[in-house]
Amino acid sequence: QPRWLPPPETLHLWKEFETPEPAEIAAIQKSFLRHVTKTFARTAFNMDNFASYQGTAYSLRDRLIDKWNITQQHHTREDPKRVYYLSLEFLLGRSLDSCLLSLGVKDIYKKALDELGFRLEDLIGEEVDAALGNGGLGRLAACYMDSLATLDYPAWGYGIRYNYGIFKQLIVDGYQTEFPDYWLNFGNPWEIERLDVSYEVRFRGYVNKVTEEDGTISYVWEGGEKVVAVAYDVPIPGYGTMNTINIRLWSAKPAREFDFAMFNDGNYDKAVEEQKSAENITSVLYPNDNHMVGKILRLKQQYLFVCATLQDAIRRFKKTNRPWSDFPYQVSIQLNDTHPTLGIPELQRILIDEEGLSWDDAWDIVTKTFSFTNHTVLPEALERWAVPLVQDLLPRHMMIIFDINLFFLQKVEKKFPGDRDRLRRMSIIEEGHPQNVRMAFLAIVGSHTVNGVAELHSNLIKNVIFTDFVEYYEGNKFTNVTNGITPRRWLHQCNPALSDFITQKLGSDSWVKDLEQLKKLKEFVDDPAVQKQWMAIKRQNKVRLADYIHSITSIQVSPDSLFDIQVKRIHEYKRQFMNILGVIHRYLRLKKMTPEQKAKEVPRLVVFAGKSAPGYFIAKLVIKLINSVGEVINNDPEIGDVLKVVFIPNYNVSLAEIIIPASDISQHISTAGTEASGTSNMKFVLNGGIILGTVDGANIEIGEEIGEDNIFFFGVKADEVEDIRHLNRYRKIEMDPDLRNVLDAIEKGTFGDPKIFEPLVATLTVGGDYYLISKDFASYIEAQADADEAYKDKVGWAKKSILCTAGMSKFSSDRSINEYAEKIWKIKPCSVPATLP
Ligand code: F58
User: Fold this and answer.
1) Which residues carry this modification: N6-(pyridoxal phosphate)lysine (predicted)?
2) 88 near 305, Cβ under 8 Å?
């Protein structure tokens, strides 16, 4: 269509609407009332908190859109190199509070609403979490969007708009039960539906070989079925800056063409049925954390996602009429794990089949464009897709993957002649029945840079799982970017009391955008007044959590006990099982004490929260055991406040914001070498909580930054694990005697029917104890005892807590993003003016 141009004499009308509104009480109230009455059809006598949340959100959304439009126009004009962050998950949580803070209008909105008779705090609680992710990987993507926006980078996030986010967890009779999270039920003010931005996506069909007159051969992918991906945009404002970037989420809709043949055959309902099946593609988020499922629907999600995303990026690139060779200098694409790896053969396909480039020219562009982040070394989490499945769904891509593999292996053969075993090991296609595509290998071969997410993890990638590739590329492709978290959400927003105190002590709030400033807190570590105030704030946060726990579980907990918290997805490698076994050990010890002895113990509250994958039997038993143990201990009159155990249901981002500021200790106790990084460890320490953890993932770097005196490390090191596992397998290791006692108590029925827990106990007794719980148990218990001792020294503890926060500068996602931008993406900030000339 020809471009529409406004009549010049009407331009001033547009200008007025495109200029951001002033942050004034009257303007805010007017826009709030306009939305409440006109968008939501409410009246002064028909209002509730939810409606006022909606009105507030829509009025903020207007402000976001103003900034978003200016940002996009500025970027179009400047045409900087952009980064595209491709992630099948974005775990954003709530947006109202973070948006108010980023736009710098929280106080004035509070006033404006106050005058109208609404309390902002109540409205914030009305919002449902956007929970389009499983755990760490999805939340990392959300933190990175916040940093990209805040640091003025020209960036886009791309993902899927699932109709159902991660399931809601309810605990029934101690067991996890799952309920669908139909989060769009009440509308979503934070997205903009873009019916005008949509792309066709093909599945199945056949590949036609065409021989041109000059003898060249080309391939055309035809037939099959088509669906359409429609864009939903989620604006992400930078903190205290104009830059407002976009997460574009795709939703599958039926293709515009309707099967009229079928319709005319009288098969109207079948025709409609098929249309519906298109919508299924983006219906549900797969709820597995660190475990791969080989479902065809998941493969469809992955392809729809990369297909639409690349069409969108290419359309934007083509606007400036540059040659294809410029593409990698204008576009950088980051793969958040292997889930979007089909983007590699897809770009290759577009370049050779549709744009007519040669294989080599196309491959050169592809490999200069993509980079890949690995998030796990667990073999069961590494994606492998059965060749027949890929062949059926994406026949042309399967051909291209075979060719990529062929050309790659030819080069390997040239470098290491005659090394057949090496070729077998490095092949993108794993032999077997059926054959499998090793997605990580495809991602490595198709990317210019591969990174791990913490130092130890990046070393394990290089020395254990991808060693052959390191040798082949002579180390040049592999690097580390240690994860980070956004200090905006994970301190400034979730812990306002501590945040205000830090601002007061440092004399400015510039630390919110420059976490290096926190180092200056070290000057106050010996100041008794600061120590006192610091711990008073911690206590306030513990009271807030205690109230929440009471409201949800009816369990009364004392804010004077040591809050010991483990919240994360439930997985054997994360060893929540070891934690609850440790709790039982403590309980048995307390049961042997006199009341006088018990009175000398540090009272402890042990908090668990986290979801298990619905089909993960052993993880679900761990949840049941935690609840059964809690039931007994919490109701034992001899124990009282000395020990309490709580499982908080339905852990999610907004719950994390209440839980994290309240910890004295948090546990990050994965078997060494299994947790790639961990990011909640960073959040707890930033809020002055102390880690009790293994020498694993980012715990190690946190220890280096805050000092080993301020972290309780225990357990074997990553390089010892393999040998111990081997011994375990052949049962050359005696079970730890304390652990034996604990298992005896379970088997005796102390915590209910022991039959229930048999399969769980068996993972230690007959299953080879793959995660080394027995080996680490003694040092775990010892570390717990050290923590108790240290907690008795109130001043010593306050100092540790202050030094924790003060030492966390490195773990800002701003640092991570700057590293990606400089080392990997080669992009520069592009600061957006307040108004366009
Ligand atoms: C997590 N991975 C790592 N995967 O386990 C954690 O150590 C790390 O800190 C974090 O990534 C960020 O780097 C993770 O969360 C998933 O949830 C995948 C979801 C899709 C299926 C496979 C697992």
Assistant:
1) 683
2) yes
pLDDT one-digit tens code per residue, 624-679? 999 999 999 999 999 999 999 999 999 999 999 999 999 999 999 999 999 999 99
Domain positions in the chain? 19-78+95-128, 79-94+129-482, 515-811
Assigned token pair, 378: 């667990």
At 499, give phi and psi (nearest 5°).
-60, -45
Q: Hey, what are 49's tokens?
A: 């908190």
Contacts of 68 (CB under 8 A, 6+ apart): 233, 235, 244, 246
Would you say the CB of residue 288 lies under 6 angstroms from ligand 1?
yes
Question: In the structure encoding, which two tokens stand for residue 83, read together?
Answer: 């980064």
Q: Which homologous superfamily does the CATH classification assign to the domain defined by 79-94+129-482?
A: Glycogen Phosphorylase B; (3.40.50.2000)
Quick one: which atom of ligand 1 is closest to the CA of 88? 20
Q: Whose CA is nearest to atom 12 of ligand 1?
A: 137
Query: With helix as H, strand as E and coil as C, how does 538-594 read?
Result: HHHHHHHHHHHHHHHHCCCCCCCCEEEEEECCCCHHHCHHHHHHHHHHHHHHHHCCC
Q: What are the residue ranges of helices labelled H in 282-382?
A: 296-318, 327-330, 343-349, 359-369
Superfamily of chain region 515-811: Glycogen Phosphorylase B; (3.40.50.2000)
137 CB under 6 A from ligand 1? yes
Give me ligand 1 centre to Cα 648, in Å.
22
Please report, for residues 172, 540, 805, the alpha-carbon distance to residue 530 in angstroms, rounded to integers and kept in the order given.
Answer: 44, 15, 13
Residue 659: name the closest of 635, 678, 683 by CA: 683
Q: Report the pLDDT value the prediction gives residue 500, as an integer from 0 to 100.
A: 98
Give the chain's residues under pLDDT 50: none
Q: What is the pLDDT of residue 275?
A: 76
Distance 88 CA to ligand 1 centre (A): 11
CA of 620 to the centre of ligand 1 (A): 19
**How far is C-alpha 691 from the chain's CA centre?**
21
Residue 545 burial (10 A CB sphere; 0-12, 13-18, 19+)? buried
Buried b (16+ CB within 10 A) or exposed e, 658-669: bbbbbbbbbbbb
Same fold flag, 79-94+129-482 and 515-811: yes
Sign for the CA dihedral angle at 725, 727, 733, 735 comes to positive
For residue 385, give the amino acid letter: W
Rg of the chain taking only CA atoms, in angstroms = 28
The answer to whether the CB of 453 is under 6 A from ligand 1 is yes
